[in-house]
Amino acid sequence: MRNLRRLSLCRRISKSSALQIMLVAMVVCAHLRKSLMLGYIKGLQYIIQHESIPLSEEKKILKEIKQLENTRGEVIANAAVRAKIQESVVHMDKEALQDLVKLIGGDLDGGRKEQQAVRSKIQQLDDGIKAVDKQISSIWDELKIVTDKRDQAQQSSFTFRQQLDQQVKRLLLPKP
Description:
By secondary structure, the protein is an all-alpha fold. The protein folds into 2 domains: about 1-95; about 125-175. The chain has helices at about 1-10, 15-50, 55-90, 95-170. Helix 2 (about 15-50) runs antiparallel to helix 3.
């Protein structure tokens, strides 16, 4: 029964009013975060002032208070930005919101087209890299063959030189 009530309530709410409700909820959450943070800071300060705690723990609490106070400005700024967004959306009509959605959708389509162009360029470059890798591989194979032939030529040159040296020794040495 409750689900039917929720469903009928959801059907009655138009898209723009649902968006307004959502934005109001975001602003309320930001305000709650800010008030909760302030309450937490006050609680930590109370602990430091009224309870006897070790110095090391007091330093940790002070450090945490400083961190919270540093982020307090960000929370307040975020709340202000959300309030401005909520105010601007409340004043927008349904057609303006649809135009904004179309504009964002167009930007997304343009981004997708750019991404596809970049992917095709990357694919072309990858194909080029593969072709160059094949050429390098074939050149290495040729180098190995040429190196083997050079080594064989050096070896045969070495053996011929030894044979020549032996023949020269035999010719130059007197026969006993």
